[in-house]
Specification:
Two copies of one chain form a homodimer.
Chain A lengths: L14 H11 L28 H4 L15 E2 L20 H11 L3 E6 L5 H15 L5 E4 L15 H10 L5 E6 L5 H13 L4 E5 L15 H12 L4 E6 L10 H13 L4 E6 L3 H13 L6 E5 L5 H11 L5 H7 L6 H22 L4 E5 L5 H9 L27 E2 L6 H7 L36 H8 L6 H13 L21 H4 L2 H9 L3 E6 L2 E5 L13 E4 L1 E7 L1 H11 L5 E6 L6 E3 L7 E7 L6 E6 L1 H19 L8 H12 L1 E7 L8 H10 L6 H5 L7 H13 L1
Parallel strand pairs in A: 2-3, 2-9, 3-4, 4-5, 5-6, 6-7, 7-8, 8-9, 10-18
Antiparallel strand pairs in A: 11-14, 12-13, 13-17, 14-19, 15-16, 15-19, 17-18
Helix pairs in contact in A: 1-3, 7-8, 12-13, 16-18, 18-24, 19-22, 20-21
């Protein structure tokens, strides 16, 4: 097969493989094919908002239309029986299938390689980086294996832990490297069992560097490791292997090395990721040579953006690669100008990848990020691969682990603390599939481990004190923290408040819509920690409220959750008697006061979507039983995240703790979603009670300036 | 306890019983109490459209708000753990609880007694009568036990079969009488086991008449039967017993008889139904006497409307009752005027019941109907007890059997053949609770038994021939049958067509909305057998589309199911390529042609409701797998219900069978429910293809008069 032929079948895949791939992902039911994402003439890709982008986020929506073509098909024998529930069509799609699907759709992908950090705070930082990079829609990320650092251990910096956190908390399909050099069968089996137990299903099988003084390994070559994984675990693991376009430095020859690669593939590898190189022709030749000797699996080029002179020298030395003379000539003169080198690196990598995409030989690109993000993101964006407007498959971040792939419903309470929710439900075997009710009283795990790197605030203690105040002198000081957070304003020290204990992120766009109203309530001591506006059938592609496939309609009931003082809680109870359309639940810290008009065993759907050809999807509920669990966390955060910033016995700590001990946690659902919500009216009435003695008066419409008035007049000012 | 006291606690119930009752049904979540149905000054009840009426239809919506009061309550210990799913809050509510709930709510009920008919057609007629009377909302009906007629047998006229059909096919909570006289323990155990197996949970335990030449019974008294049922089945059966306001004719004295009654109650009876009587004072004294000796269970007066001189004489003789002189004096002179006697009977019974309701002593009334309906319905309506506008709990008729009480989803295909659906799913153990998907490939029972009395047409063969034609000479003759049915018009012989094989009832109000359009299609050979218009969030109390509790919103996707010729089916396939918003499924009789663009294992919700405080309820789906089952029935009905009316080899039979063999069954779902449906446009295009040769032209908008135009011009005529 010559290079000419590759333009017809550029990836060199078996037609049987392509067929398999085609049946999986070619078509969406409504005739939206993955091909809509057009390739530009320069090889870059136009970024459009497409439902098929969901493939990169999880396996939802892209693989269950068997025998699909948009003109319909005579129904043949069932190719793969779906076992999951029907509303979101979620099921686990192995990484190998995702890659094939993207090859078939002609939509190039990118993936990202990271190494485990050395410190705890490094681990937290890396997770934050993964969170950011996930936005762009990588197909997967992989975590390297550090044999010297107990990579299979339980420390926060082990390869195993980082891969697990990447999968579950950053929500990336994750591949774990594993090296066999120096390892016994027992070592490997222990690692594989643990990876499986953690939900990891992708392994990059490597030999790794032989330790000079190490024991002889049970696995002399990576081929033996691949064989062992396949033999022991069948198809459970997707297996990647490394390819060396310049030949493995220890191989007798380039041709010998290709034969080793062929053996690895024949042993069961699903795809190849190449060692880094600097010229596209190297990759073209390598792929062509692989196809010549019968290697049919996808080959993904590995690219390292040149980020500094030192790192280039270091990597080249490690990998025993030769840097092309033309690159040396450009880089050498810039060696003291890091920025210039980085810019060159971005340019060089972008051009090389464009050439590979244009040729059609590279199905995607794998980035050796060196745990940095700026250069890589810049290149991804230049290539048009960054997913600017990702269409969410569900209103919350879907975890791509096969363990949770059928998860399609969550209580709203944890919507700003998804990591805590995942942590507390990580031991669940079965995810409630579509009906929360089918999993009555699910046992939530305890949350005592606020220090865990994926749970704790991304900010340091000092940063939090800067935001929330080095000292708290009054309740109003506390209220103002909430107020400034919602308004996106700096506090009195000029520090912008970007988080509160219940929300470690900035406000989501949905909340922004109502943040003025919320801010006004908070300034006066109604301390809101969760909310959503009502929505009556907006398009599923709506940039703020949309999720799911095209052609759907999204609905929400207005929801508000807040802390209030005991006195106000009493007034609120009175006021609520006038509003039969509201479901409420009021509870105190120890749970002895527990007052609701909701059916206790019945969750209330507060977000749902209606899509073509499906049942109704209702991914967010207000569940009275889970609320009892959530309240412990919600009250606990006052103490754990805030009060403990101050010395024991200090006034600041006392104030925070007195709020935790005396305030009530309230949630309100306005069931009449098609109409303007009455929740603001209820809270205006509540505020109007403050200066009054008589209940009757309290319940009448207030003539003083209510929060609604205040916001309205602000809006008027804005529109003038 | 004197009569004076009964006005405070008129039913004489234990306060503990009342409390239990209160916790069950006093309050709907939205503060709508059962008390809204006001009692008029004359003791009759105003008929209002109330959600609490649902109690009489099934146990949905009225019994799960534990500890409820409309101002909320501190949540106490769980009194009864709900085990069913959460969307409709369905669970089985025993008849005894329903009675207590109605006593507590102050809303009188009525119940109806029938005896098993003697013939097969009598059985079909009785079922039709039960269907009609069910509309008025009886709390239950009961079926008498005919010891001489093998009452526990399997014939269509046995007490057991009629009770089972009443429960499952007429949808009435049903009580089966059982008499012990002459029966052995083995007899009774066999009967009870069979009743249990059939889903019957209410037994009226009677001694019955001793057979003069019979064997001595194992159960000398009804008390022994009550004890035996309780001992053997615990609380499984609700047990009613008979009370004799005039004393049992065989009892030594009235007081002795009261003691026997007390024993029956102490043995475990849940309530008392009285023998008939003619003056309210008799009932007042009886209740008072019962309460005096400590009988606390509800006592329901049994009333027999006087319907003819002969039947009055007959009943009085049987029951050894004395007719009051004043009644004798009125009836005697009228003895040859049946209508006058019936009118008097209606008047007399109504006045007596009103007096009993006004006193507050009677919680409801039990009618000895003698299997007739006119007089009883007339009385019920005079009393204001007839439920004029029943609010449906779900869009289809709910079966009150505990076996099906969690059923909350059905395929739309059987919507006009609910009895066939119930028959075919009667062996299911678990009803898919909320997610059709959780019951993949449910195994439907065969439908070979078209002759079964609850499945066959209520019309005779001659009536069907009158409607559908004594001879069929052309396809157009067939099409006209559909057309006339939909238009509610008489056929060419002047006979109004009120049914077609797929629909044994007149059109439902929902279909009426679109019947003109449908009729036009049918006249031209698109033979529709099922349809629903799209609906976008109408109020749940809407008289046509509404169901479920107040405060909800109802949604529907437009649905159309029809037979078409092979040629048209080909054109339709072409046309459908232009409409990505439509899900279609096209199939032929033998299923070899099976063409769909739907996910084969995923049902499409086509009717759903959003209610306060609940998950989304989606009771009707289009399920591709069930469609494969339904098509056998739908094609089979051509032959079984229609072709077989004509002699073998006749032209009429040939035409019908050729349609069954050559037409295609199609279903279409328009997923874009908020917009005007495009289904009419699709079918107009289809009709416009008929006279054309070129596909391209066929796909363009037709300039000839389409069905839409025709209907529009009709509407214009109407509005001029």
């Amino acid at each position: 097969m010559g290079i000419e032929n590759t333009s017809e079948n550029p990836s060199g895949l078996d037609s049987s493989v392509k067929e398999k791939c085609c049946s999986i992902s070619q078509t969406e039911m409504n005739g939206i094919t993955n091909r809509e994402r057009g390739r530009n003439s320069d090889g870059s890709i136009s970024c459009t908002n497409m439902s098929s982008r969901n493939c990169s986020e999880s396996s939802i929506y892209c693989s269950d239309f068997e025998d699909g073509s948009d003109t319909g098909n005579s129904v043949g024998p069932c190719r793969r029986r779906r076992t999951s529930s029907c509303s979101t069509y979620q099921h686990y799609q192995p990484l190998s299938e995702k890659i094939l699907a993207r090859i078939e759709s002609g939509e190039p992908f990118f993936s990202l390689e990271f190494f485990p950090p050395r410190t705890r705070s490094g681990a937290a930082n890396l997770l934050a980086r993964l969170d950011r990079m996930r936005q762009g829609g990588p197909l997967f990320c992989d975590i390297t294996w550090h044999p010297a650092g107990n990579p299979g251990g339980d420390s926060e910096t082990s390869s195993m832990t980082i891969a697990w956190a990447s999968l579950n908390y950053s929500g990336l399909d994750t591949m774990l490297h594993m090296t066999s050099a120096g390892a016994t069968v027992a070592d490997i089996d222990r690692h594989l069992a643990k990876a499986k137990n953690m939900g990891i299903r992708n392994i990059l099988a490597l030999r790794g560097d032989r330790l000079e003084d190490g024991n002889p390994s049970d696995f002399e070559y990576a081929t033996m490791l691949v064989k062992h994984i396949r033999k022991t675990y069948g198809d459970y693991f997707v297996i990647g292997v490394a390819g060396y376009p310049a030949g493995h430095p220890e191989a007798p020859s380039y041709d010998e090395d290709l034969k080793y690669l062929k053996e690895k593939v024949d042993a069961g590898a699903d795809f190849i990721i190449t060692q880094l190189f600097f010229k596209p022709e190297v990759f073209f030749k390598f792929v062509n040579d692989c196809r010549e000797i019968g290697i049919r699996v996808p080959i993904i080029p590995g690219v390292m953006p040149i980020q500094s002179y030192d790192s280039l020298r270091h990597i080249v030395k490690l990998s025993k690669l030769e840097v092309p003379q033309e690159i040396v000539e450009i880089v050498e003169p810039l060696k003291h100008n890091d920025e210039a080198i980085r810019n060159y690196g971005i340019h060089q990598a972008s051009e090389m990848i464009k050439a590979m995409f244009q040729s059609g030989v590279a199905p995607g690109v794998h980035f050796y990020t060196l745990n940095r993000e700026v250069a890589t993101i810049s290149i991804i964006k230049q290539l048009g691969l960054w997913n600017c407007q990702p269409q969410r498959t569900l209103p919350w971040k879907v975890v791509p682990s096969y363990r949770r792939c059928q998860e399609e419903i969550r209580p709203i309470f944890w919507s700003t603390r998804p990591n805590a929710y995942i942590h507390r439900t990580s031991h669940w075997d079965d995810f409630p599939n579509g009906r929360w009710g089918s999993s009555e009283s699910p046992a939530f795990g305890d949350l005592r481990d606020y220090y865990l790197f994926y749970l704790k605030s991304k900010s340091t203690k000092e940063e939090l004190l800067e935001m929330w105040g080095h000292s708290i002198d009054s309740y109003q000081d506390v209220w103002d923290v909430f107020y400034h957070y919602l308004m996106g304003l700096p506090n009195k020290n000029g520090v912008k408040i970007t988080k509160i204990p219940w929300n470690d992120e900035e406000l989501c766009p949905e909340t922004t819509v109502i943040s003025d109203r919320l801010a006004c309530l908070n300034k006066r001591g109604i301390l809101t920690i969760n909310s959503q506006p009502n929505v009556n059938g907006v398009d599923s592609t709506d940039p703020i409220h949309g999720w799911g496939t095209q052609g759907g309609y999204i609905y929400k009931k207005a929801y508000l959750e807040f802390f209030v003082s005991a006195r106000r809680m009493q007034n609120l109870k009175e006021i609520l008697t006038q509003y039969s359309q509201i479901n409420y639940h009021i509870i105190n810290k120890n749970g002895r006061f527990n007052f609701t008009n909701a059916y206790r065993h019945c969750p209330i759907a507060v977000t749902w979507g209606v899509f073509p050809g499906r049942e109704i999807i209702q991914p967010t509920v207000v569940d009275p039983e889970s609320f009892l669990v959530w309240k412990d966390e919600a009250f606990g955060l006052w103490t754990e995240q805030w009060a403990k910033l101050y010395p024991e016995g200090s006034k600041s700590r006392q104030i925070i703790e007195s709020i935790a001990n005396s305030y009530y946690l309230v949630n309100l659902v306005d069931n009449d979603f098609p109409k303007e919500t009455v929740l603001w009216e209820v809270l205006d009435k509540l505020l109007s009670c403050d200066d009054r003695n008589h209940e009757e008066e309290c319940l009448s419409t207030d003539e003083s300036l209510s929060c609604s008035d205040e916001v309205d007049s602000q809006l008027q000012r804005l529109s003038v």
